[in-house]
Amino acid sequence: MGSLFRSEEMALCQLFLQSEAAYACVSELGELGLVQFRDLNPDVNAFQRKFVNEVRRCDEMERKLRYLEKEIKKDGIPMLDTGESPEAPQPREMIDLEATFEKLENELREVNQNAEALKRNFLELTELKHILRKTQVFFDESVPTVYKSSSAYSSSKYRRYPQMADNQNEDEQAQLLGEEGVRASQPGQNLKLGFVAGVILRERLPAFERMLWRACRGNVFLRQAMIETPLEDPTNGDQVHKSVFIIFFQGDQLKTRVKKICEGFRATLYPCPEAPADRREMAMGVMTRIEDLNTVLGQTQDHRHRVLVAAAKNLKNWFVKVRKIKAIYHTLNLFNLDVTQKCLIAECWVPLLDIETIQLALRRGTERSGSSVPPILNRMQTFENPPTYNRTNKFTKAFQALIDAYGVASYREMNPAPYTIITFPFLFAVMFGDLGHGAIMALFGLWMIRKEKGLAAQKTDNEIWNIFFGGRYIIFLMGVFSMYTGLIYNDIFSKSLNIFGSHWHLSYNKSTVMENKFLQLSPKGDYEGAPYPFGMDPIWQVAGANKIIFHNAYKMKISIIFGVIHMIFGVVMSWHNHTYFRNRISLLYEFIPQLVFLLLLFFYMVLLMFIKWIKFAATNNKPYSEACAPSILITFIDMVLFNTPKPPPEKCETYMFMGQHFIQVLFVLVAVGCIPVMLLAKPLLIMQARKQANEEVQPIAGATSDAEAGGVSNGGSHGGGGGHEEEEELSEIFIHQSIHTIEYVLGSVSHTASYLRLWALSLAHAQLAEVLWTMVLSIGLKQEGPVGGIVLTCVFAFWAILTVGILVLMEGLSAFLHTLRLHWVEFQSKFYKGQGYAFQPFSFDAIIENGAAAAEE
């Protein structure tokens, strides 16, 4: 069989590359993506390998590119992505790339530092501007009070600013100034209040006020006002809200205390002149400096923007180049150096069919590097298990992913993926069968297939959408198969299509039909005798009493039929594995008993279903009328337990065909006899073969020397040890075979019953669709007039949302998971081990894709 049904044949090769050509050859192999290298230096530390310095240089370049990318995204500049993948640059080009990235990073950091300093200066000037404005308002609101003395100092005057216009009473002045302030009102004493002004974050202001009050014992006066426009923090660019405050106090001690509190709350203090003229002059100077700063800031931002726009045009290509260089040197670190230090030696797994393609790529790399020594690719003999490599395309990739999620196939084991392409959507459709719901799913899948190039180019990080898009072909096939089974069930949104006309006819008049709710149609008189051409007759849609009974019997039987056929197919697949690997013992003593056991019990039950459908009918006379039809389940239970069947009704026969009892007894005895064959035959034959092999190894006859005698003695003791090890291995074989046999025998029963989920989910899906139609949409259809149109529109929208959300999405997900279980457990357990490891070639495409995904996270 080809690689579609089995994994590719792999070869372990040894590769000899000249040191000068190694970089170019590995680059060509990375573009090809068909070689998996092995690490020939597993004991060497990563920091002690030959090309560790080059890898560090690439890490440093990646760091600089990430810094540029962060700055570009911060400014919202679109990055050009042509979708092309440039070739890996030559090693000498690394110096140019490093110089370019170093220049860009230094220039950008310098611009950012200058911009941050300018913004910090602008913030300080803006805060100072607000302080000068607000404090001017504070001082304008205060009422000057002049104290005169009647003593010798009557000519001296002093002016103080009381608390504010609304706090001019003497009690508040005494509270602010204390006893010292009261004495200051006496003749000959001059009192002066100091103040500090600054800004503080608005959320810290309440705690700031409480701390001032407690620390200064109420001997300060605080006045604050909010700055209406938010200010930009120069360190992170966030918008912050601040308030201006001014604190009046008396004495140097309070001044020191106030400044320490301001420092603790990270409030910024600014110099504020006492004289109004000085404040106005300072305000004019601040405004002039702010205008100059705005001009310089604008020019700085323009220059920064130009630098980032130029970098954004090449950033994606730079990332690709650096990641390719890093991947090449990381791969070269896996190689060994020969004794001459002029040749690199590598070991790699390659697909056997692609050896010529790999050799051509190596030749191209050698020519590109200018080397005169051609590379050498030798195939090696090995007993190691090769990796598993299944070629896929965009159609088969999703189905292969379903299989690999269970376990990667062992090397050259039968690959279930090609068969899953048909069986998976079909079993899904058996549970999801509805023409309308299947059409919605198929159209969604078809839309993703038609738009796949544009949707793939978007590269969104939405995990749910990526799962849907990755399985677009599965969704499309599941929808198409569901439309087919919906036609078979004659079910579209819980209604039927009367395409060919019902083959049942009414023998009652109209008044009888309208007045009686429980009428029956007799197959003998009301049925034409020929079945509906395709699917179920639409008459069953209006059968309220026995519709579910009829559907139950039909869907339950087809579930068992499909399940048994699916399991038999799985057992037949194991025959392909045994013949390919030439495992004669497993072929004779596992495959044949398993197949016989399954055929004589469960396939025989399927045959009884077809015999019952063919021989018994309502139009037949006894003993083949519908009253004489036996129960298949009861017949199967009596067969396995060797029970005597119950007496049939009058004029009916006990068995469906002649010799049925003898055949059933024979089948059960043969099936039971297959169990000890599966359990004991293989371990006993292996034990016998090993015993014969041990008997063929005889001690050396005629040994006379002590050395020879010692050798014989040691060999005998070693042989005994080996026998003991073989006994342990045989015990493990017996245990494993016992588990395998018990699992298969009991699993055959449980797996057959497990396929009844096809019937259960199909019935549940149909009933949910009928509930939505009866309890939602039919209400809108019963309304009349203009209001009825509005009601119908609203009801239809609600019904459509429930249909898509519950019946298509939730029921579809449930049916998908049940189908997945049927394939993983019931089908693949018959032949699929899944104990291999995946082929992971050195591929630039995979490395770049993984690097981009990691960067987005």
Itemize the secondary structure elements and their pairings.
Elements: E1 10-18, H1 19-32, E2 36-37, H2 52-74, H3 93-141, E3 145-148, E4 157-160, H4 170-184, E5 194-201, H5 205-215, E6 221-226, E7 231-232, E8 239-240, E9 242-249, H6 252-264, E10 268-270, H7 276-312, H8 315-332, E11 336-337, E12 343-351, H9 355-369, E13 376-380, H10 397-406, H11 417-432, H12 435-450, H13 452-458, H14 463-470, H15 472-489, H16 510-515, H17 547-580, H18 584-615, H19 632-641, H20 660-696, H21 706-754, H22 757-781, H23 785-827, H24 844-856
Antiparallel strand pairs: 1-12, 1-13, 2-12, 3-4, 5-9, 5-10, 6-9, 7-8, 11-12
Coiled coil: 51-128
Organism: Drosophila mauritiana
Protein name: V-type proton ATPase subunit a
Low-pLDDT regions: 143-190, 700-726
SSE-based structural type:
alpha+beta
Number of helices: 24
Strand content: 5-15%
Distance between the termini: 42 Å
- Please give the largest β-sheet: 5 strands, antiparallel
C-alpha-based Rg, rounded: 44 Å
Helix content: 55-70%
Let me know the average pLDDT: 85
